[in-house]
């Protein structure tokens, strides 16, 4: 091989290595893509939607009620889940007559309610039971309340499990939009 060919191979290899390292840094700390596997967040997300998740936002601000968060599933840390954040640390939640009450106040936030009837299910979602959210934990629900395994069943999402906030649907093309 002549020197020119060796130099070109070296330049290509360096470019590929740098691109790979930058991609890993961005994926690890900035933005990551996820695929929606189930209908638990319908109609917000449907099966097969691909979303982008902001992985650094919660380093600068606290998660807020209504945020769509991606987190490590507390019962199996190998699985990533996406749900809507409903209650924050040290609040009290109650699901009654299909409505959500936080600290005895009906939640009327349009990003939380969305004409959803929240079913009373599971150990942490029983009728007329007030649930205290522990410090550094969150209570999350799927937008498709009738078919979502969420905090009503398995409890709370520890702060350390948060991966980021879903902010954009990028695929399929006919569903491109911001996530709300």
State the gist of this model.
This protein is of the alpha+beta class.
Description:
There is one protein chain. With 180 residues, the protein is α+β, with helices and mostly antiparallel strands. It has one domain: Ribbon (Umud Fragment, subunit A). 19% of the residues lie in helices and 31% in strands. The chain has helices spanning 3-29, 110-113, 151-154; strands at residues 31-35, 50-54, 68-72, 80-87, 92-96, 99-102, 105-106, 131-132, 137-141, 157-158, 162-171, 177-178. Strand 5 (92-96) and strand 6 (99-102) form a beta hairpin. The longest helix has 27 residues, at 3-29. 26% of the residues are buried.
Measured by DSSP, the beta-strand proportion falls in 25-35%
**Fourth-tier CATH superfamily name:** Umud Fragment, subunit A
Strand count, sense and closure of the main sheet? 8 strands, antiparallel
| Shape annotation | elongated
- Uncertain runs with pLDDT below 50, 5 residues or more? none
In round numbers, the mean pLDDT is: 89
| Quaternary organisation of the protein chains | single chain
N→C terminal distance: 56 Å
Structural class: alpha+beta
What is the helix fraction of residues, given as a range?
10-25%
What is the CA-atom radius of gyration, in angstroms?
20 Å
CATH topology value: Umud Fragment, subunit A
User: Count the strands?
Assistant: 12
């Amino acid at each position: 091989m002549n020197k020119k060919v060796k130099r070109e191979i070296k330049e290509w290899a360096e470019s590929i290595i740098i691109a790979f390292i930058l991609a890993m840094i961005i994926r690890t700390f900035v933005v990551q893509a996820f695929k929606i596997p189930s209908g638990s967040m319908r109609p917000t997300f449907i099966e097969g939607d691909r979303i982008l998740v902001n992985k650094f936002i919660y380093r600068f601000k606290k998660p807020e009620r209504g945020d769509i968060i991606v987190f490590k599933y507390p019962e199996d840390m190998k699985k990533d889940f996406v749900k809507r954040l409903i209650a924050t640390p040290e609040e009290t939640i109650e699901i009654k007559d299909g409505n959500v009450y936080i600290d005895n106040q009906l939640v009327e936030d349009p990003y939380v309610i969305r004409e959803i009837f929240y079913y009373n299910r599971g150990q942490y979602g029983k009728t007329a039971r007030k649930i205290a959210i522990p410090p550094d934990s969150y209570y999350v629900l799927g937008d498709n309340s009738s078919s979502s395994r969420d905090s009503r069943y398995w409890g709370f999402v520890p702060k350390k499990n948060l991966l980021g906030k879903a902010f954009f649907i990028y695929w399929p093309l006919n569903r491109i939009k911001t996530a709300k």
